Amino acid sequence: MMLFGVFMSYKAWGLYTNCESPLVVVLSESMEPAFARGDILFLSNPKQPIDIGEICVFKIPGRDIPIVHRVIDRHDSPETGSQLLLTKGDNNNVDDRGLYQELYTNRGKMWIEPKDIVGRVQGFLPYLGMFTIFMTDYPLLKYALLGGVGLVVFLYE
């Protein structure tokens, strides 16, 4: 019941923030010094246009892991109301155009669109996501923890 309650709370929070994934963990150093590896980011997805300087989490087709980077340029089309966005990690030397081209090789894409945005960063908790990173980097730790939890449930049942 407790796990069900946590899951439902997470989904309700996603509905409230209009974001399919309202929590993400920073997995790389590309956004330092703004965010360090292991920080937990709180996301929302308001309807307003995205501004230059906002930190967004976006997903590109063909890649499972979302990317956390800052919007450094945007092009608005008044006729269609669409936006084209260019992003860059604060700790990176170049923008993300090479990344877009690599993943959109058949279209030669140079920008991302608001439909690619998972959410906008609203706040963060430093280093609390390191647990997730350790579980990913060291799978034996994950199995040991699951085994320990299972053992506790079995013994105290």
TrEMBL record:
<keyword id="KW-0645">Protease</keyword>
<dbReference type="InterPro" id="IPR019756">
    <property type="entry name" value="Pept_S26A_signal_pept_1_Ser-AS"/>
</dbReference>
<dbReference type="InterPro" id="IPR001733">
    <property type="entry name" value="Peptidase_S26B"/>
</dbReference>
<dbReference type="InterPro" id="IPR036286">
    <property type="entry name" value="LexA/Signal_pep-like_sf"/>
</dbReference>
<keyword id="KW-0256">Endoplasmic reticulum</keyword>
<feature type="transmembrane region" description="Helical">
    <location>
        <begin position="140"/>
        <end position="156"/>
    </location>
</feature>
<keyword id="KW-1133">Transmembrane helix</keyword>
<comment type="function">
    <text>Catalytic component of the signal peptidase complex (SPC) which catalyzes the cleavage of N-terminal signal sequences from nascent proteins as they are translocated into the lumen of the endoplasmic reticulum. Specifically cleaves N-terminal signal peptides that contain a hydrophobic alpha-helix (h-region) shorter than 18-20 amino acids.</text>
</comment>
<dbReference type="GO" id="GO:0045047">
    <property type="term" value="P:protein targeting to ER"/>
</dbReference>
<keyword id="KW-0812">Transmembrane</keyword>
<feature type="domain" description="Peptidase S24/S26A/S26B/S26C">
    <location>
        <begin position="22"/>
        <end position="74"/>
    </location>
</feature>
<dbReference type="GO" id="GO:0006465">
    <property type="term" value="P:signal peptide processing"/>
</dbReference>
<keyword id="KW-0735">Signal-anchor</keyword>
<comment type="subunit">
    <text>Component of the signal peptidase complex (SPC) composed of a catalytic subunit SEC11 and three accessory subunits SPC1, SPC2 and SPC3. The complex induces a local thinning of the ER membrane which is used to measure the length of the signal peptide (SP) h-region of protein substrates. This ensures the selectivity of the complex towards h-regions shorter than 18-20 amino acids. SPC associates with the translocon complex.</text>
</comment>
<dbReference type="InterPro" id="IPR019533">
    <property type="entry name" value="Peptidase_S26"/>
</dbReference>
<dbReference type="GO" id="GO:0004252">
    <property type="term" value="F:serine-type endopeptidase activity"/>
</dbReference>
<dbReference type="GO" id="GO:0005787">
    <property type="term" value="C:signal peptidase complex"/>
</dbReference>
<dbReference type="Pfam" id="PF00717">
    <property type="entry name" value="Peptidase_S24"/>
</dbReference>
<comment type="similarity">
    <text>Belongs to the peptidase S26B family.</text>
</comment>
<dbReference type="InterPro" id="IPR015927">
    <property type="entry name" value="Peptidase_S24_S26A/B/C"/>
</dbReference>
<protein>
    <recommendedName>
        <fullName>Signal peptidase complex catalytic subunit SEC11</fullName>
        <ecNumber>3.4.21.89</ecNumber>
    </recommendedName>
</protein>
<keyword id="KW-0472">Membrane</keyword>
<dbReference type="GO" id="GO:0009003">
    <property type="term" value="F:signal peptidase activity"/>
</dbReference>
<keyword id="KW-0378">Hydrolase</keyword>
